[in-house]
Amino acid sequence: MSFAILGLCDELLQTVAEQGYTTPSQIQTEAIPVVLNQRDVMAVAHTGTGKTAGFTLPMVQLLSGGDSPQPCTVRALVITPTRELAAQVAESVQTYGSMMNIRTGAAFGGVRIEPQIAKLQAGLDVLVATPGRLLDLYNQQAVSFDALKILVLDEADRMLDLGFIDDIRHIQTLLPAKRQTLMFSATFSEEIKSLAGGMLHDPVLIEVDTDKNIVDSIKQKMHPVDQERKSALLIHLIKKYNWQQLLVFSRTKRGADTLVTQLKEAGINAESIHANRTQYARTRALDGFKNGSVVVLVATDIASRGIDVHQLPCVINFDLPYVAEDYVHRIGRTGRAGTSGLAVSFFSEDEAQQLASIEKLIGRKFERDIVQGFAPSKKPAVVLSDEDEEYGNFEPDPPRRKGKSKGQAGKPAKTKRKHWKEYL
């Protein structure tokens, strides 16, 4: 199947081809025609499925034939839970709308609001914003929704998790009742159903890429280790196997910063990304991670939304998440859209409840593989006889279909990645 049969115009087909995409992903195949028909959509899809292109491409086409935006107005609004995701989506819209004269802007906290107000003064076709900054702009009378035609809620489940539900419901009251609404979520919980029921009109339900599919596509390992020795174990694995471009998840902001300090003291270039860091520092850390100058990026669950790296080889759960569903979100950063990936988790005795919840969610029990020299002191177990047999060469497989689109996740990597070590 090609993009040509989805109903996209010639300009968008040319842009898609220039980006190196020839075959649409499942979410794109199902969502694009529905959005072009101006139906409301409730789509359940994880990151890495190409969902961003699934709504940006048809949205750009629908906007291309309309009148130019008036001062301070926006014709389409995309709401995201995090700054990083807002910047990523805005970049996607700008890329796909490059031949369509689509005016795009992003608005989020952590940076000065004045440049965002200035950009809105001329009017925008598409505004991508986080809820808090969007309300700030509205309260300062910097943006009007009178001309709004399309509303997109991206990663709606994460917005609920972060407590944005009241902001979203308030924003809804400010928007025209007659509009097209698209909602994308990684889960279809009762809370999401309730939110969708109040915002969508006769929506088309699209479900792709279930939790089980994500879990089954990724190699997963669980290493028992004392909590105080987790950083030493991580340093050991990185140095012994020359791991590169490693995304590490920490439960807390303080823990992320502490781990970065320990890694740097060990001679490993690392940066953290979390809500307490300035937007400039977060952008610099993410850019360094993408270009390979930062070997390890330590992130909290909230800040990780919007991290988009093509064929990310491996993720590390330095701490197990309190919410089992976050485990699936985390490991979904690797093994994206048809490629294999590796997820490694460090597990201490005080995380037994989190581990049990994860195992219940994914329907499988993990083998506890102890790395030689790092056996936990409280619960000794059989140590692997030969650690090297567990870590063979690991490198992400190429996509199953040549040219398969993965949205922004499918862009060619700019840096050559070294071989990884695979668990057999």
TrEMBL record:
Residue ranges of domain DEAD-box RNA helicase Q in the record: 1-29
Q: How is this protein annotated for GO cellular component?
A: cytosol
Q: Where is the Helicase C-terminal domain?
A: 217-382
Q: Which Gene3D superfamilies match?
A: P-loop containing nucleotide triphosphate hydrolases (3.40.50.300)
Report the residue ranges where the short sequence motif Q motif is annotated in this entry.
1-29
Here the segments flagged for biased composition (Basic residues) are 413-424
Q: Which UniProt keywords apply?
A: ATP-binding, Helicase, Hydrolase, Nucleotide-binding
Record domain Helicase ATP-binding: where: 32-206
- The segments labelled Disordered in the record are 381-424
Molecular function terms from GO: ATP binding; hydrolase activity; nucleic acid binding; RNA helicase activity
- Highest taxon of the source? Bacteria
Which Pfam families does the entry mention?
Answer: DEAD, Helicase_C
Return the PANTHER family for the record. Answer: ATP-DEPENDENT RNA HELICASE RHLE (PTHR47959:SF13), ATP-DEPENDENT RNA HELICASE RHLE-RELATED (PTHR47959)
Family the UniProt entry places it in? Belongs to the DEAD box helicase family.
Query: What is the protein name for this chain?
Result: Related to ATP-dependent RNA helicase
Source organism (scientific name): Desulfotalea psychrophila (strain LSv54 / DSM 12343)
Which lineage do the record's taxonomy fields give for this organism? Answer: Bacteria, Pseudomonadati, Thermodesulfobacteriota, Desulfobulbia, Desulfobulbales
